[in-house]
Amino acid sequence: MPKEVLIRYDRCLGCRSCQLACAVAHSGAGSLLGAVLNGERPRARIFIHQAGGHKAPLNCRHCQDAPCIDACIAGAMHRQEDGTVTNVGGDQQCTACWMCVMVCPYGVIRSDADGTLALKCDRECRDEKGVPACVRACPTGALVYDEVDEYSDKRRLDVLNRALSNL
Amino acid sequence: MRFVIIGNSAAGVAAVETLRRLGGYRHRITVVSDEPAGAYSRCLLPDLVAGKRTENSINLRPAEFYRRLEVELLAGVAAVEVRPREKRLVLQDGRELAYDRLLVATGASPVLPAVPGTELEGVCTLRTLRDARRLSALVPRVSGAVVVGGGLVGLKAALALRQAGLGRVTVVVTSPRLLIRQLDERAAAMVERELINAGIDFIYNARVKAFAAGPKGRLTGVELEDGRELPAGLAVVAKGVRPNSGLVEKAGGKVGQGIVVDGNMRTSLEDIYAAGDCIQVTDRLTGQKVNSALWTLAFEQGRYAAANMLGMARPYPAPLTRLNSARFGGVDVVSVGNLEGEEVLAHYDPLSRTYRRLVFSGGRLAGFILAGRVDGAGVYTALVKSGRPAWAYRRQLLEGRVGSVALDLLFKRDKGAHNSYE
C-alpha cells in the first residue's frame, strides 16, 4: 500500500513550517543557512493557502490517473514503484512546456526560478526513516505520512482523500 | 486475446501501457507503425530542428520499452487494409495480422493548401521525425524561409528555424493576428513581440498563391495572392491537420470530423476501437463534434480505449478540445476553453508581466487565457472542466491568487466527509 502525505486540516495553523522545510530540503545546500549563503532562493513544492477562515497546505496528491502524466509531452512525468509521481529521475527530461501546470487541478506544479523545469513534490526529501521533510517539520501534527487505508481504519480521517483524488 | 494497435504515438503508447497495467501479460500485443522506429515526442520536433535536442532525447520511452512490455513492434510498415469480418489487418508488405481487438491510433496528417508547387523540394511540413530530418538537412542550404500559418506549429517552426541559424524567417498568416484560435489581441501581441525580438517577420491577412520553382525544381520563393513574392529556399506549411481515418472509412466504418467512436472508444465496426488525433470527439463546452488533435487527449483516450478493449467499461467523458500550453521566448501562454462568452474580464499585472483573461458564461468559467506566467493554470482548467459556479472567485482568478480557490473548492467539495470523521 503506497503512502501519502495526508492533511488534518483542523490542526493546521498556517505557520508555513512545511513550506520552508520543503524548500530547504530541495535546495542544493540542504540547509537554510547554507542555501542563503550560496545565494539560492529555495522553492517549495507545498503551499499554505487561506480559504474561508482556514489556512491549510496544498500539495501534490500523486493522483491515480494523474493528468500531469497524460499531459507530459516529453514523457518525463512518470509514476515510480512507490506511487510517487515525478518528472525527475526518469528516462526523459522535463522540457518546461507547462502542460502539467495547465492540467494540475491543485495548482501545485510550478516553474523553477529560471523557467527551465517544472517543480513538484517528488518526495526526494525523505529522511532515513522515509518521512518527507514537510511532515517532519509540522509542529502540530497536521501532516501525516501514512498508508491511506490504514489511516482511515483508525477513523481519524480528516483527510478528504477520496475527494482530493477525484477533483 | 490478441491485440493489434495501429499507430505508435501518444494514443498507441498509452494503450500499450494500460493494456499491460490492467491486463497483465497473458495477452499478445502487436503495434504496427509506419514510423521507422520507436515512439517519440511529436511536440519536441521543433527543438530537434532548432538543434536544442538530439533524436535520442525526444524518445517518448526508453529503447527497451517494447521488450520490457513484451510488445511486438512492426516499425516502418503501414497498415493498408482492415477486414473487420475476417478480423484481419493487411500490411503494406503483404503480411496479414489476425486480431481479436484492434485499436486504430493512426493520428493525423498535415493539410497542404491547394496551390501549385506543394510537391517541390523545399516545401515541408513539421509533423514527423522524417519531416524534422528533412528540414534540418535543408536549413544549411538556404538563406531564408517562409512559414505558412500563424498557429502553434507554425510559430514553433519559425522560432526553431531562427534558432537553427536561418537569417530570414517570415511567417505568412491568413488572419489579422497570430494564434487566432488560442489568443485574444493582447496576448497575441505579447507573443508577437517575443517572436519579432527573435528576428521573425510577420505578414498578416495574406494567402499563398503558389510555391515558385527554380530551374532545378527547387523552391525559390512563395507567391502571395496580393502579388508579393517572398524569396525563400524553404517553406514550412503549418495549416492544421486532417485525421487519418481512411483505413476505417474504407472498411465501412463511420467517419465525421474524424473516426466516429462511441462513449467507450468503439468505432462502428465490431471489435475495432479508435483513439487519438484520428477520431472525432464532442467538445465538453460547445457540444460540437470536432477532430481531437491534442497530445493530452490522445494519451488519455489511449488509456480509456485500452481499458475498454480489456472489457472493463470505462466511459470516456467529453473532453475540453481547446487546451494549449506553449512558450515563446520569455512569454508562456496557456489557453483553455472558449475565447468568448457572456462576461469577459481581463487584467494585466505589470509586476509579474502576466495577462489574464477570463470568460464566464452563466456564472461558470468557460475559458481563460494566461500569458506571461502560467503557474496555477490547472486550477482554472479544473474550473472550466468541472463547470462549477466560479463567478464568486473572479477577483482571485483575475489576480492569479488561485491557491486559495483550489483549497476552497476542496473544502466545499468535501463538506460531507469533513464532518463525518472525528
From TrEMBL, chain A:
Gene3D superfamilies reported for this sequence: 3.30.70.20
SUPFAM superfamilies: 4Fe-4S ferredoxins
Pfam families (alphabetical): Fer4_11
Matching InterPro entries: 4Fe4S_Fe-S-bd, 4Fe4S_Fe_S_CS, ET_IronSulfur_Cluster-Binding
Gene Ontology molecular functions: 4 iron, 4 sulfur cluster binding; metal ion binding
4Fe-4S ferredoxin-type domain boundaries: 3-22, 83-114
Recorded coiled-coil stretches: none
The entry's keywords: 4Fe-4S, Electron transport, Iron, Iron-sulfur, Metal-binding, Repeat, Transport
Highest taxon of the lineage: Bacteria
PANTHER family: ANAEROBIC DIMETHYL SULFOXIDE REDUCTASE CHAIN B-RELATED, PROTEIN NRFC
Name recorded for this polypeptide: Carbon-monoxide dehydrogenase iron sulfur subunit
From TrEMBL, chain B:
InterPro entries reported in the protein's UniProt record: FAD-bd_OxRdtase, FAD/NAD-bd_sf, FAD/NAD-binding_dom, FAD/NAD-linked_Rdtase_dimer_sf, Rubredoxin_C
Superkingdom per UniProt: Bacteria
Domain NADH-rubredoxin oxidoreductase C-terminal, first and last residues per copy: 328-385
Single GO MF descriptor: oxidoreductase activity
One Pfam family, short name: Pyr_redox_2
Domain FAD/NAD(P)-binding: 2-302
Coiled coil residues, start to end: none
Cofactor(s) needed for function: FAD
Key words of the record: FAD, Flavoprotein
Cross-referenced PANTHER family: NITRITE REDUCTASE [NAD(P)H], PYRIDINE NUCLEOTIDE-DISULFIDE OXIDOREDUCTASE DOMAIN-CONTAINING
Protein name, UniProt field: Pyridine nucleotide-disulphide oxidoreductase
Protein species of origin: Desulfofundulus australicus DSM 11792
